[in-house]
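Issue 218. Parser rejects a valid record. Input:
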Amino acid sequence: MDYFKIIPSDITNVIISYIELDDLEILLNTFNLINANWNNIHYYHFGKYKLTSVTEYLRKLGAEILIAKLILDHTEDELLELKELFLSNKNLTHIPPEIRVLTNLEDLHLDNNQIIHFPPEIAALTNLRLLNLNDNKLTQLPLEIFTLTNLEILLLSKNQLTRVPLEIRNLTKLVGLYLSENQFTEFPVEILTLFNLQALILSHNKITKIPPEIHALVNLTFLDLMNNNFTEFPVEIYNLNNLQALYIPYNKLTRIPYGISALTNLTSLNLHNNLLTQIPAEIGRLNNLRVLTLNNNPIMSVPREIRMMHDITIYE
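Output the parser choked on:
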């Protein structure tokens, strides 16, 4: 017998004993099929949660499941109000779909786990500003991440990524993107539409060239290209007028081409552990430069124009 057929559509009281979240959603959908008006129901009793709305019950039950699955030291109410959640170092391989109830989260730290993929429910965390996925097992990025349009910081270092989806262009508020220690052999050109980007970390990959279009990243102030496969200095960088820090050590550079004086806002230039035999005196025209790192290069001498610079520290 289909008991739902005998439930009147004008019910005003609902009492349901404790039930699993997925089963409850099926039940509620069934109630909707009989056109029950949930706005008219003035008394709820869902297990231990009394006098609460259906929506709020689902959120609390989801939080309860998260606490059990992730072994969290929070009450349901505390978890639902959290703005920052640390799930680092928990040996997680996946994220429970109930993560969707944490809609107040702004910072989510999932670094140093074994995460391979994400549930689509991550798209519900629309208030996220920071998402830390460093040191996991990701080989590709779930497209749901790119619906989180309030993201400002995205940390993806120490994974197994070889490319970035085109959908990253949706993250127009992104100011920091961390992609070090992945498997990139080419510069991820998909990020060139992130016009607000200020910090780009691409160290410890296998990149050999920078595309000319990098000039589109007009707000970039920090660029880290350490430990890649550059044999020639990427002169395309000279178009980054706001760049303040450039790190390109542990490559195979043999010379610095003319034009570096265009980086007038540069305060830190790190060139150590390359194959440089000389550096251009032109660097002495970088009036804002405060730190120049040249260690472990076969440089015969540092030009006088550089040594005479004011307030500079040279490591050689």
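Fixed in the parser; the record now loads. The radius of gyration is 27 Å.
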